[in-house]
Design brief:
single chain, mainly alpha, 434 Repressor (Amino-terminal Domain), 3 domains, 4-stranded mixed β-sheet, 18 helices, 55% helix, globular
């Protein structure tokens, strides 16, 4: 019953459809909106109806528009098809409907940001950035060369990377993110993908391909950004999981190329050889303290650095697979992020990136969009946060 005591014309079939589409069970929804499980059952069978407040809570839980619940028939939204999924689930259950729907929601969100960015660029009277045709590679391309060319095109010197002060090496992912965005790529951050077993996502499109990365440790973030940039170089969309060695055919070949590219990009062969003398034959094992020091020098994770050393013939693959990989996976699964940024404005900039945020702020400052429109583009409800962003970031 509504607050006025009259029944709202909910369509119980739509209520059920919206819940099932999310993969949520009846008891999950009941707990989420703090009602008895039987109430959800009664609403979906038409025996009773939610109040307006309860209906809006359902809409928020299902990520649907409230007015859809009053449709005469079940809505027919265009379904997003997930890009190729390269995650591995050995020893774990493959994602169920709920996890799949969550991943689709991330992809929908990212695609919406891309369309928003293109719309704002058009409103500003500009042309979308064009990703260089000289940065197109295939699986037969030499990875060391591809990494060197990409670094040069970005203007990212290995010396600048190595000379970062120890206390500032955690900032390297943001430096890399800015460089990638400067190449005509929209880079978004979505912490939720980590819980879904994903490290990163590439949605390849022209113009403005999209990279999404999660809230891992800084060294892992740098590897993921470089890995997803490898997907852009190949013109290949995909959902990426944990880095690993091997895989020479099909999807595994793509992931292997991107893993090798990321390692070569972050730790060029010549720089590794200057830092570490290569043994006459691959070592049976490698000191973990020395591995950590080397990884820190290059602002990488130990996981990524060991992959690099194996690929360069410094260490035998067995040491990675049998000894270190299980430890790396456990460490990464238990990693605690730095938490939320200190104020709300920065949270939005972290998620959308400086490129996207700069477009929105330029459109707002130039009178192309209202403050309300700008807030909608940023996903901000409080206009004060919009002002904070303009003041603190100098847009």
């Amino acid at each position: 019953m509504s607050a006025a005591g009259t029944q709202l014309p909910y369509n119980p079939r739509v209520l059920e459809w919206a819940r099932v589409r999310t993969g949520m069970a009846v008891d999950e929804v009941a707990k989420k909106i703090n009602v008895a499980t039987q109430k959800i059952i009664d609403w979906e069978s038409g025996k009773s109806t939610p109040t307006t407040r309860q209906g809006r809570m359902l809409a928020a839980s299902y990520d649907r528009h409230f007015l859809e619940f009053f449709s005469d028939s079940i809505p027919q939204p265009s379904e997003v098809v997930l890009v190729p999924d390269y995650r591995t689930f050995k020893g774990k259950q493959a994602p169920g409907p709920k996890e799949t729907r969550s991943m689709i929601a991330v992809q929908e969100w990212a695609e919406e940001q891309r369309l928003n960015a293109l719309a704002i660029i058009e409103e500003l009277g500009d042309r979308p950035p064009v990703f260089s045709q000289n940065l197109r590679f295939n699986l037969d391309a030499d990875i060391e060369t591809a990494a060197e060319i990409s670094r040069e095109a970005m203007g990212l010197s290995i010396d600048d990377q190595l000379q970062l002060k120890k206390a500032l090496r955690y900032t390297f992912p943001e430096i890399l993110r800015d460089k990638i965005e400067g190449m005509g790529v929209l880079v978004l951050k979505q912490s939720g993908i980590t819980k879904l077993g994903a490290r990163g996502i590439c949605l390849f499109a022209e113009p403005l391909p999209v990279i999404i990365y999660g809230n891992e440790s800084p060294g892992a973030q740098a590897f993921t950004l470089a890995h997803e940039f490898g997907h852009v170089l190949l013109g290949s969309s995909g959902i990426s999981g944990q880095p690993r060695l091997g895989g020479k055919s099909g999807h595994k070949a793509i992931e292997d190329w991107c893993n090798r590219f990321a390692s070569a990009f972050l730790a060029p062969k010549a720089s590794i050889e200057r830092a570490l003398e290569k043994p006459s034959k691959p070592l049976e094992q490698f000191d973990t303290i020395a591995l950590g020091d080397l990884a820190q020098m290059f602002a990488m994770s130990r996981h990524a650095m060991l992959i690099r050393l194996v690929n360069l013939g410094y260490v035998r693959p067995e040491f990675y697979w049998k000894t270190m990989r299980p430890l790396f996976l456990e460490e990464e699964e238990n990693h605690k992020s730095f938490g939320r940024p200190p104020y709300y404005g920065k949270r939005y900039v972290n998620a959308k990136g400086r490129f996207y945020t700069g477009l929105v702020m330029s459109a707002w400052s130039g009178g192309h969009v209202t403050a309300h429109n700008a807030a909608e583009y940023m996903g901000i409800k409080n206009l004060e946060h919009l002002k904070d962003i303009r003041e603190d970031y100098g847009f």
